[in-house]
Amino acid sequence: MTVLRDPSTWPERTFYAMGCQMSAHLAVETEQAPAALAQVEAFFHAAEGVLSRFRPDSELAYLNAHPGKWLSLSPLLWDVVATALEMAEQTNGLFDPTLLFALEAAGYNRSFDRMTTGADATPSTQDTVPHQGTPRRGGGYRQVRLRRAGQSLNLPAGLKLDLGGIAKGYVAQAAVNHLRAWGPALVDAGGDLVAGDAPPGHPGWPVAVAAPASRSQENAADIARLWLANAALATSGIDYRQWQAHGRTMHHIINPATGEPAVTDLLSATVLAPTAAQAESWAKAAIILGAARAERQLGRRGFAALLVLRDGSILTTSPAQRWLTGPSVVERQERTVQ
Amino acid sequence: MTRRTASHANRWLNAGVVLTGVIASLVGASLLQWQADAAVPAAPSSLPVAANNTVVRLPASMDGQDNGPNADAVVVELEPVPTVVAPSDIPVPRPVARSRSSR
Fold it and tell me: Do B99 and A25 touch (CB under 8 A)?
């Protein structure tokens, strides 16, 4: 009788990058596994140097500081920007990577680590972008100009790019694809999961959807568990990244229609999709849409999604029913959408 | 600084510059190679798909070309990536990772 190896015992590496705790897992026993997993960490750090808006010397920071000019981008930045703009089109602008001014105006003008620790905790009115009378709304992504020859980009004045979750997912996807040379892999990029092939003998990588922070207690049960293979699972939420500014609670998910943090009945949204970019973009879009519209729009597009409402109830799209294991679902409540 | 010390310091400085350059080129080369080897994600189902090939065209509005219509639109050829998720009747053991909002 063949005894299947517990996937949690496969080689893994945990590290901190892009402001998040991350891990990479490789379902193969080889002496090269540690080196291969170390490469994943190195790739994230190198990519952060290109894609981070918080690094003053990053390529993205240079791009944002030079609007109105045609700039030739590195292959990495070009791919990530193109992916982000494509997701903006797919979500009809609900996901909009050009809302950095609005995000900074809300107080998110430095890494969240610095916002929540030490002297930088709680943004002051002195070091935030002055809250202008009219918030900067979305739609600007349509004005970004790309030129294939030379992979160059022209960012109009008044726009700045924030690649956030798209960057994490993109690098995670590339890391999983790179690890295929060794075997099945899974990368957890700060809660955005990207899975390659299933580990030997298993239908997928065993993963879970964590309870949102405000619902969690010590060792709180997961909302759901599922097998994941050749797909991505991303969660967007206002449960953790929130702060006080301008006399109210702010969070990082800007509604492009208002230029302000989205007013929503959702605490978190988890989306299963073929790619990390789709999962991340639609998870964010779901928060902005709110429970009822998110359930309709994501369900219509065939996305499996778990939506946790502020009142603690959980809504799932129809496609999500297939992916959840009945005995492992801790709490599930189906509602009739009004 | 004496001439002898300056010469000695310069040798170390030059060696450091060369070493830094070698490391940087290796990282850059490996990163680019890694990118070149990376499979591009599958085409989203909402976009037009050509037979026997998966092609994604970015909308004409993103085309930086000022001459004529979409003649040089950015075209990204993607390799289809299968999406396989197991049936929900197989209990999931202890998870190796959890999806959550960034922290």
Answer: no
Token pair for residue A212? Answer: 């949102």
Give the nearest chain A residue to B86 (CA atoms).
A203
State the Cα–Cα distance between residues A115 and A232, nearest whole angstrom: 29
CA pseudo-torsion sign A275, A277, A282, A287: positive
Three-state DSSP class for residue B24? helix
Instruction: Render pLDDT for B45-101 as a digit per residue (tens, 0 to 9).
Output: 333 333 333 333 444 444 343 333 333 444 444 443 445 455 556 778 889 999 998
How does pLDDT run across A249-293, given as a tens digit for each residue?
777 888 888 888 889 999 999 999 999 999 999 999 999 999 999
Contacts of B17 (CB under 8 A, 6+ apart): none
- Spatial distance between the Cα atoms of A273 and B83, rounded to a whole number of angstroms: 8
Instruction: Map residue A153 onto helix, strand or coil.
Output: strand
User: Which token pair is A289?
Assistant: 């849409």
Which residue among B84, B94, B101 sits closest to A229, beta carbon to beta carbon? B84
Contact A194, A173 (CB under 8 A): yes
Q: In the structure encoding, which two tokens stand for residue A207, read together?
A: 């993963």
**Å between B60 CA and nearest CA of chain A:** 10
* Model confidence, pTM: 0.74
If you search the block for the tokens 């193109």, which residue do you land on? A82
Tell me the C-alpha distance between A85 and A166, whole Å: 10
Region of B102 (left: φ > 0; alpha: ψ -120 to 50; beta: rest) is beta
ipTM confidence? 0.85
Question: Checking DSSP bridges between strand A205-209 and strand B97-99, what pairing results, if any?
Answer: parallel
Do A212 and A243 contact (CB within 8 A), yes or no? Answer: no
